[in-house]
Amino acid sequence: MLIMWNKARELAELTPSERNRWVDFLRAVSILAVVVGHWLMAGLYVDASGELRRGDLLSIAQWTHWLTWGFQVMPVFFLVGGYSNSVSWAAATAKYPRDHEGVYRDWLANRVQRLITPTFPVLLLWAGLALILTQLGLPRDQIRMATEAALIPVWFLAVYLLVTAFTPIAYRAWQRWGWLSFAVYVPIAMLTDWLTFTHKVPWVNFTNFLWVFLAIHQLGFAWRAGKFGKSWFAWGWFAVSLAILVSITVYGFYPVSMVSAPGGFSNSLPPTLALFALGAVQVGLVLALEPAGRRMLDRVSVWTATVLMNGMIMTVYLWHLTAFVLVMTFDWLVLGGLGLEPVPGTGEWWITRPLWIVIYVLALLPMIAVFARHERSFGPIRGGRTVPRLRAVLGVVAICAGLGATAGLTIASPEGLSGVRWWVIALPLTGRR
């Protein structure tokens, strides 16, 4: 870790003065919030009969639904993505102004590689584990549960890649219509929810993965354009959005919880108008705090920590639940469930959380050491083989379909000799080519 810290410090000291460090900080913090949130919600414990049980914290402690307003920070990641994508797309088109098809193909390929390259090791590892455990005769429902838990994070990558693919169109819309290119998504998201909940139209709610996150992505363009530069505007945006969120959840139709929870429908899978409102709240808050945050990041130690985290951010995100599953499996099979007696939500359970989080971090460190290198194991695509734009887009669709199936169906199959859905693994591998 000392070597990684020293390397990060060298990079930190070379950072150009014009770089918006708050973008990198928000990216790091949002991923860390997701990691800690997942580790908290998955509450395994041993009951009085000695059986291992899953006690979802959100189903046991109703008050924890409010915590999801802080831990469901995927909208922040799309805000940061909009800012970053506008910077990189503007730079790419400025460099090759007469070759927009080639620029888009190569730009998209680079963005895809940054996200998908670190994903292959975790997919292949769990495919191998599913194959081995199936041949050893372990119950397939247990194999499915383990693979499903470990690969939960990949669904987000499918949506993020899809939104990223729309960047040129979205950015052109922002340049031409400004705020209207954001505002149009509000009635579309409302219409989608109305069709879903009032008229029970099947599958239409899944389009909100696009409408909601494309809208937040547009706010990243607005941020870079300086539209949130006035402190009063950012705080006003936060206050109005919070009032709307409270009115449609606490006093309205939508659940308070921003992730899947018992007793109501999910606000996140797929997104609803409530998650849209939460995203607007978070945008207002983090951009209102930007001036203070950028002053904080002028400190070398804080900026170095941010650089370090961003250098392994995909590894931490993709492998944190693998670390959790392996820790729980080792504890249950080898140690007999040592330390798993407290029931989730109790005082004893909360007191032990810091210790367990330290254990999860320690289990994650070897994975960071081995796999973080894949985050930078590629270079620019420009100058490589020519791939038609349609093929590049179809490749992204194949990747998104594969990652979505990995999260929705899991790679573990209830049938067949291997116990693995190989087509799910093949889709993102094929799409990347």
What labels would you give this structure?
two-stranded antiparallel sheet
Describe this structure in words.
The chain has 433 residues and is an all-alpha fold. The protein is built from 21 helices and two strands. It has one domain. Strands 1-2 form a two-stranded antiparallel sheet. α2 runs parallel beside α18, α5 crosses α15 and α14 runs antiparallel to α15. The longest helix has 25 residues.
Short description:
With 433 residues, the chain is mainly α.
Beta fraction: under 5%
SSE pattern: HHEEHHHHHHHHHHHHHHHHHHH
Round the mean pLDDT to the nearest integer and report it: 88
Gyration radius over CA: 22 Å
Subunit organisation of the chains? single chain
Low-confidence stretches: 377-385
Main pleated-sheet profile: 2 strands, antiparallel
Q: Provide the spatial order of strands within the biggest beta sheet.
A: 1-2
> Which descriptor suits the 3D outline?
globular
Class of secondary structure makeup: mainly alpha
Number of helical elements:
21
Count of DSSP strands = 2
Provide the helix percentage: 55-70%
What is the end-to-end distance?
A: 34 Å
Q: Topology, pairings included?
A:
Blueprint: H1 2-13, H2 21-41, E1 44-46, E2 52-54, H3 57-60, H4 68-71, H5 74-95, H6 100-116, H7 119-135, H8 140-150, H9 154-165, H10 167-177, H11 180-183, H12 185-197, H13 208-224, H14 231-249, H15 273-288, H16 290-296, H17 300-310, H18 313-334, H19 347-371, H20 389-408, H21 422-432
Antiparallel strand pairs: 1-2
